Amino acid sequence: MTLRSMFFSLFLSLAGISLSAQYGDCPTEGSNTVYLNHFSEAENWFLDEWIIYELDTMVYNEAQLVESRTTRLWDSDFEQFVNSSRSFNDYDVNNKRVTWRYQLWNGALWYDFLHTVSIYNAESQLILERDSVYNNTLGELVNTRLKSDYVYDEDGNLSGYISSELNEEGEMEPVYKFEFSNYTEAGIHSNSSTFLYEDGSWTDYRRTERIFNSFGQLSNVRTYAYVLGEEQISQDNIYFYLDDGNLNYIVYQSYGNGEVTQITRVEYLHDTCDNLVYKTDKYLDFATGEYINIARRHNFYVGQDAYVSNETLVGPELQFFPNPAADQMTIQGLQAYTPIEYRIYSIQGQLLERAELATGSGAAKINTQHLPSGSYLIQLQVERELYSRVISVR
């Protein structure tokens, strides 16, 4: 389906490809799947192929909130993922995040780098947030940013707050003030303004307005910047949805001197549990009018009931069964793809197994008897394409 956007002053024809938003099936119709963890692969588009560079692992608590996140980067020399960073979230009895810890890997040990503490009032409203950065000289965390002076309206919606930062004299001074107004019934603010603190007073810095369609869905987000005291549009984001209500794609238009300077498009694919499976970033080539790949992120969700959101955007129609597996797993749909190399990784990103598949009969079997119970990431190298799945062993 081709859409000609009336929003573009450049009169460019945009390929509004209607992609199916439903991938994978929920265990039962309308069920609330309880997730244990989820994996996320990040890839860059390079020389006409996707190159994987990052693997994230998220672990959920009983309230289905992210408890920890570990990021590992691909090391081409060792051909496996290596530690990069990790973060931990702590929540109060109302499921409000009270601390966030961010650590980096120095090649041998994890060390603290960032730390955020959030304080709430009796109504569970945020009233203070303190960011600290690890100071190597002092050997301790030092407070570098403070969000305070939180104000709420009579409906309990956030009206504004002030962000202060550590100056050269080692003192906290205000930098930005944020104000929010015109909340929708869904609790989303339609307007926000940012002010910059200069020479003892607040000056206009940025303004954002959100526009909603008749279904209450976000349709536009327009951001304005102030240049020499005059308001100029800096970005206009346009949202497109599928009939099932899931977000299909967003078109981002960046402006300079009142003209469009760059157009990017972010496409979304969801499974039947409304989980985001794929997020793909593209930019518009003004010379050809075509969108060019930049990067994409592929998500896998592992449920407590053995449900695995496990689909790929392109490639062969591969079937993995049984999943979960006990002694072995069969992969079907490989008859046209030989030879094929497979790799199995732990959820920590450690390469556990690497071998070639024999696919003469159109199916291949992988021995899983030696793997402890749990979830694993399996990758199939088919010529220049890399396909990933999450498998479970019990």
Helix count?
0
SS elements, strand count: 27
The CATH C-level name of the domain at 1-32 and 213-219 and 232-314 is: Mainly Beta
Tell me the strand percentage band: over 45%
Low-confidence stretches: 1-24
- Euclidean distance between termini CA atoms: 44 Å
Report on the structure:
The chain is mostly beta strands and 394 residues long. Among the domains are: 122 residues, Beta Barrel (Lipocalin); 79 residues, Macroglobulin (MG2) domain (Immunoglobulin-like, Sandwich). Helix content is 0%, strand content 63%. It contains no helices and 27 strands. The strands form three sheets. The chain has an 18-stranded antiparallel barrel. Strands 24-23-26-27 form a four-stranded antiparallel sheet, with no helix packed on it. A three-stranded antiparallel sheet has the order 21-22-25, with no helix packed on it.
Layout of SSEs?
Elements: E1 22-23, E2 35-46, E3 49-60, E4 66-75, E5 80-91, E6 97-105, E7 110-120, E8 126-135, E9 140-152, E10 158-166, E11 172-183, E12 189-198, E13 201-212, E14 218-227, E15 230-241, E16 247-256, E17 259-271, E18 276-285, E19 290-303, E20 308-309, E21 319-321, E22 328-332, E23 340-345, E24 351-357, E25 363-367, E26 374-382, E27 385-393
Parallel strand pairs: 1-17
Antiparallel strand pairs: 2-3, 2-19, 3-4, 4-5, 5-6, 6-7, 7-8, 8-9, 9-10, 10-11, 11-12, 12-13, 13-14, 14-15, 15-16, 16-17, 17-18, 18-19, 19-20, 21-22, 22-25, 23-24, 23-26, 26-27
List keywords for this structure.
single chain; 394 residues; mainly beta; Lipocalin; Immunoglobulin-like; four-stranded antiparallel beta sheet; 63% strand
